[in-house]
Specification:
By secondary structure, the chain is α/β, with parallel strands linked by helices. The chain contains 12 helices and 8 strands.
């Protein structure tokens, strides 16, 4: 039995993964933003749950403290929280563009806060990325908060690309200590997430596929497979998966020098919190 923490688990593929992993006998820790929706997933499967709004880094700190207090061993951290937001460029209370913070920055910070526990547990970190990193990203390391130019779809693609760079740098820094990092694309999944992107290119992409979109259960399949498996035995770490198979990322997402630079810039962004 593994202890598996899933963020963004109040609906969609996170909720589907939580249900499946619980039914397979694992201890799943459900993390969500909405109290009602998170409880609706966790209570029926008798899973512990925690609340956090990733648009607020104070919430991320509180969540990390709760996880450290309650779970002495964490086998898997699934950084699954995210979304695309179509109502123009919005800054969080922390001063960052909303898409960048919710999809990438908060996940980076949560992982950083849990690093010692994850390393001691020889954990697997699973980042939910997307094919959007190939189709939509216009990654600019000098404009991570999209201050010079903003598009909801590009911001989403950039954040999903950043999660792939995060995977590479995590593996580079901590792989020799026993931590493993992977990422996956769940497919185009018919969930509430698509509605938040309805005015963007991403939303039109979802609309074009219509009934061909996958169910949350299908979208969660690769996440469940990665969480239940063992890196180095069932699959190699430091790779991007689609339908349980290794897929190539974009050249930008595979740039290991860029991965290191993004890590350093993220440390600078969060310098007041991580010093």
């Amino acid at each position: 039995m593994k202890t598996i923490v899933i963020t963004g688990a109040s609906d969609g593929i996170g909720a589907a993964a939580a249900r499946k992993l619980t039914s397979d006998g694992h201890r799943v820790v459900v993390v969500g933003r909405s109290p009602e929706k998170t409880a609706a997933v966790a209570v029926p499967i008798n899973a512990p749950y925690h609340l956090a709004d990733f648009a607020d880094l104070d919430d991320v700190e509180r969540l990390a403290a709760e996880l450290l207090d309650n779970y002495p061993h964490i086998d898997v951290l699934a950084n699954n929280a995210g979304g695309s937001f179509s109502n123009g460029r919005v800054e969080t209370r922390d001063g960052h563009e909303l898409t960048f913070q919710v999809n990438y920055l908060a996940a980076w910070y949560l992982t950083w806060l849990l690093t010692d526990r994850l390393v001691s547990s020889k954990a697997t970190v699973i980042n939910t990325s997307s094919v959007a990193h190939k189709l939509l990203a216009r990654f600019d390391i000098g404009d991570l908060d999209s201050e010079r130019r903003f598009s909801p779809s590009v911001a989403y693609g950039n954040a999903k690309l950043a999660l792939l760079l995060h995977m590479h740098e995590l593996q580079s820094r901590y792989g020799a200590k026993g931590l493993s990092a992977v990422a996956f694309h769940p497919g185009l999944v018919g969930t509430d997430f698509a509605a938040t992107a309805e005015d963007s290119l991403l939303g039109r992409l979802y609309g074009a596929f219509g009934s061909r979109m996958a169910s949350p259960e299908k979208g969660a399949d690769t996440l469940v497979w990665l969480a239940e498996g063992t890196p180095g035995i069932n699959y190699p770490a430091d790779h991007y998966y689609v339908n349980r198979s290794v897929h190539r990322t974009s050249k930008t997402a595979d740039d290991r020098n860029l991965a290191g630079e993004l890590w350093r810039r993220t440390e600078l962004i969060l310098a007041d919190r991580i010093r």
